[in-house]
Every structure is written in C-alpha cells, then in structure tokens.
Specification:
The chain is built from 8 helices and 2 strands; from the N terminus they run ββαααααααα. It is mostly helical. Helix 2 packs antiparallel against helix 8 (165-193) and helix 6 (109-133) runs antiparallel to helix 7 (139-161).
Length: 198
C-alpha cells in the first residue's frame, strides 16, 4: 500500500534506500519540529524586543540554535553534502529577522528596507539548494512565501507596538502557516531526492 507525502510515494523511497517508513516519518516530524521551534522563538523574540524584556539575549541565543538543528536533521537522514550550506543560509535568515524586528521597533524605515532585501536574498540562497536537489522545487512559490513571511513579521512587530494584539495574532498566525508550508515543501523535496540514492 502506498503511503503518500504530497505527490511522493514513500514506499518508493524505502525500496531504493535503507530508510524505513518509520525513518521517513521521523524525517518529516523532525523537520516540522525545527520550523515549529523557529516560529515559536521568533515570536518570543518579537515580544522581547517590543516590550524591552530582559530575556532578549537568552531568546536570541535559542533562536540561533535552529540552523544547527536543521543541519543535524538533514545530515542524519539524507547525508547531503549541502547540509552545512543550508544551515549557514538559515543562520543568515535568522540574523536578518532579528535585525528587522529591532529596526521595525526603532521605526528605522531605511534599515527595514535594507534588511528585508538581505532576508529575501538569503532565502533565495537557501532555496537554491532544494532546486538543485530536484527540479520539482517551486522556485517562484517559495520566493513569494518568504516575501509574505518577512512582511508578516514586520506587521506583527508594528501591531505589538500599538498594542493591537488581535492584529499581532493574525500576522503571526500567517507566519506560522507560511513556515508550515515551507517545511512540507522542504520535506517532500528531501524525500524525493532520496529516490536517486540506490
């Protein structure tokens, strides 16, 4: 019986690799956890910056552990030589996100524009690894999702600055939804890439 992940049949992967169905499920769960942690601590970072909380440095350090967690997950299941490059790209994305949260809180429009551009550039570099793994990687969709993501982060910060909690929740719910989509896209491409490993 086929176990489908998006348009990918997992049993094909298991037939061509040493992975079991349990391994593939673990890969998906592990990737989802990495992105869950990413969004969880990103929002805590927004709260810290906008409220001038004393735990800002602690949350920042935890947020910056996400890239190594992603690299570890990819290396464990896929053994791709690009895992360190992917990790470096996520690290650059994270740095840009922290910078744009602070720039938005400081209402520095010029810096917001500059950092937003950096984030999108770093995101495109990150996505390039997956387009190399498979021609099925949706380049334009991924780029659009990352642009919507960074704009939703900015909206979240701006909403908290004026104490519009409902708008903050809506903006960050959008961030979470986008990251869930990206996590699924990444997992499906990683799984599909394993079909070429015999």
């Amino acid at each position: 019986m086929n176990v489908e992940a998006g348009s990918i049949y997992i049993n094909e992967v298991c037939a061509y690799t040493k992975l079991t169905l349990s391994d593939v499920d673990s890969l998906r769960l592990s990737i989802n956890k990495v992105f869950f942690d990413f969004t969880q601590y990103l929002h805590r970072m927004i709260v810290c910056v906008t409220s001038q909380s004393e735990d800002e440095n602690v949350v920042s350090k935890r947020l910056n552990k996400v890239p190594s967690a992603f690299e570890s997950t990819v290396s464990t299941y896929c053994n791709t030589k690009d895992s360190s490059g992917m990790s470096a790209s996520i690290s650059a994305q994270t740095g840009s996100l922290i910078a744009i949260i602070k720039a938005t809180n400081d209402e520095d429009k010029r810096l917001i524009k500059s950092v937003r551009k950096d984030f999108i550039s770093n995101s495109n570099i990150f996505c390039s690894y997956f387009s190399e793994l498979s021609s099925d990687w949706p380049v334009e969709s991924a780029s659009s999702l990352y642009e919507k993501f960074i704009d939703s982060v900015i909206n979240s910060v701006q909403s908290r600055m004026i104490h519009n909690w409902n708008a903050d929740v809506i903006a960050f719910d959008n961030c979470v939804s986008i990251m869930n989509k990206i996590a699924d896209m990444i997992t499906n491409i990683l799984i599909k890439s394993l079909l070429s490993v015999k």
